[in-house]
Amino acid sequence: MSLTATLRTATSGLNAAQAALRTVSDNIANVNTPGYVRKAVVQESLVVNGAGMGVKINGVERITDQYLQLASLTAASDASRWSAVSQYLDNAQSLFGNPASDGFFFNRLDKIFAAFATAADDPSSTLLRSQALANVEDFLTEADRINSQIVALTDTVETRAAAAVERANQLLDQISVLNADIKRASLLGADASGSENIQSQLLDELSELMNVRIAQRNGGGVDVRSAEGVLLAGDQPAKLTYVTSDSTPGYITARAGGSTNDQPIEIVSGELRGLMELRDVELPKLYDQLGEFVSKAVDRLNAAHNAAAAYPPLSTLSGRNTGLDLPTAVSGFTGTTTLAVVDSAGVLQRSIAVDFTAGTISVNGGAGAAFTPATFLADLNTALGGLGSATFTNGALTLGATAPNGLAIDEGTSQKAGRAFSHFFGLNDLIKADGFSNYATGLTGASPHGFTAGDPISLRLSYPDGRPIRDVTVNVPAGGTMNDLLNALNNASTGVGLYGAFSLDANGVLSFSGSSPLNATLSVNSDNTSRGAGGPSISQLFGLGVIERSARAGRFDVNPALHSDPTRMSMGKLDLTAAVGQVAVRPGDGQGARDIAVTGEVNTLFQAAGALGQVTMTLSRYASEFSGGIGRAAAAAETRKASAESVAREATNRRQSVEGVNLDEELVNLTTYQQAFAASARMIQATSELFDVLVNMV
């Protein structure tokens, strides 16, 4: 080997050792720098014509493990998802209060029952009546407060989700810019590890917001894709958009750089998945179940109050808007009910027995006269004679007695959709609702649907994660029955038939069920239908969509007439054994109040809501199941959060063991490269000395 070749070999070794020493120095200097990944020089033997000519440096590389990086990103994404869910479910749980305190929401129902039990012992006491009403009002006010704050939590979550999408767009933009920087450095043979470290930190932050797939690019940098493979960051960033409305689930779309098309993408983990799950699933389950619980509690209290009688008797019984026409409302009733006209002292003036099964109305025990749903109002007015009147306006039945008389009702065995006659029409409700809250309409497939022909309802079918499948607009069919309306809704081409079906149960509850394999969910985009002039829409009458469900628990108030005059409360019962001229309603009778006090133990049909399917149980049992379910959901989210964070820590630790700087290892490398530098320097010195010897010999 010539002296020149020897010098070149030694010089290459010297340069390689210097580069390695700089790299080791960088590693040691950044031992505590967050996100720093240790690096090493890439050395290669330099061979010329089959002979070794030293070593060359092919660049500096970061010491990473792609599998551990992806595992860490996935674990961090799951941890962020459950952290968000746990945080807000814990906030929602706190709205109901401490189960060990008197202020616990579900304890307030027991206070109502206790107050009416006390009032039953002294039904003439205005103070006890007022206290019972105050407890009812307290329960309803708390329900409204909790419901409003759950809805407010939903708005907060939506705002945070929008902010997360905006941050994700910023990260994707920065990742794409760094891709260009890394590629440029690689082409020039420069050290790109600084840009790669910054990009790695951005990817870590992005993975906490949403799930992504990472792939290394040939020229350096990374491609970032969604779960289904949509390119989010590469040469250009995609633009993410959070698409949402008050009535439909939210979802994320991506518009690739240079494209004009927005493509919905699947978000399966990360903070965004947790926030969207809260907004569209978890929090709606809470206010839906709260609405079901409160509406059935109100329904039971109203059922008992409608079956009771007031003293002094009420001159007017004003019903609620049923959303139905009178013939449809009356159709389907079975059993009997009794309407009594009594004077101011409770003496019976006239007894009217309505037998819905037989279709007859009898007066004072006489022979029954036939009636039909179409003639019911006229036949009832005939039976009242000059002692009272019945009217039906805007879906509401009103009964009145001529002064100085009053009215009392015994519900008897009358029944329709789980409610007795007076209860169904809300003639003597203890609690009034601002809107529709009981979706057991009593309609059957053969009932006329009553909605204006041609009116449209727009429905959205979505995947369980919120991505839209299809929007359909269904026009109300002309005339016809509920079966005709169901057929229009379930039509395979113009309705929801390809993805699920609407059905009407025995109580007239309309519901949608998605079919496999898509298991689509349904929401209401808009509803311009109307049942008769000024009547309710399809979504209002049947409680379809989040707009209706989210307001349900806050629609109730104590009957204003009772609030202003507690003596109008129905605390007694109509005595059916009394004959005309005998006392039928007595002062001091507390049987009606006692019936209200035990409504918590009456079996009630609850529709599927929240974590519970359709069940029949007592109010007290449902309250226990509901409160327990809230706690279980929050605890389960906390457990999943802890588990996900544990996995994320383990994945991060393993990744750090590969990527992190080990001072002991770096000190060994430092010694090694120092010795290599010294050896190369000694080789140069030896060559110089040999050259001097040769020169002197010449």
Describe this structure in words.
The protein is an alpha+beta fold. It has 16 helices and 27 strands. The strands form ten sheets. Strands 14-13-12-11-17 form a five-stranded antiparallel beta sheet, covered by helices on one side. It has a three-stranded antiparallel beta sheet with strand order 3-4-5. Strands 6-7-8 form a three-stranded antiparallel beta sheet, with helices on one face. It is elongated, with a radius of gyration of 39 Å. The mean pLDDT is 91.
Question: How are the SSEs placed, and which strands pair?
Answer:
Elements: H1 3-29, E1 39-48, E2 51-62, H2 66-94, H3 107-121, H4 126-188, H5 193-209, E3 213-216, E4 222-225, E5 231-233, E6 239-245, E7 248-255, E8 263-265, H6 271-306, E9 309-310, E10 316-318, H7 326-330, E11 336-342, E12 348-355, E13 360-363, E14 369-370, H8 376-384, E15 388-393, E16 396-401, E17 406-410, H9 421-425, E18 431-433, E19 456-462, E20 468-475, H10 482-489, E21 500-504, E22 510-514, E23 521-527, H11 538-542, H12 546-551, E24 556-558, H13 560-564, E25 570-572, H14 591-597, E26 603-606, E27 615-618, H15 619-659, H16 663-697
Antiparallel strand pairs: 1-2, 3-4, 4-5, 6-7, 7-8, 9-25, 10-16, 11-12, 11-17, 12-13, 13-14, 15-16, 18-24, 19-20, 19-23, 21-22, 26-27
Helix pairs in contact: 1-16, 2-5, 2-6, 2-15, 3-4, 3-14, 4-5, 4-6, 6-14, 6-15
Fill in the keyword field for this structure.
698 residues; alpha+beta; elongated; 5-stranded antiparallel sheet; 27 strands; 16 helices
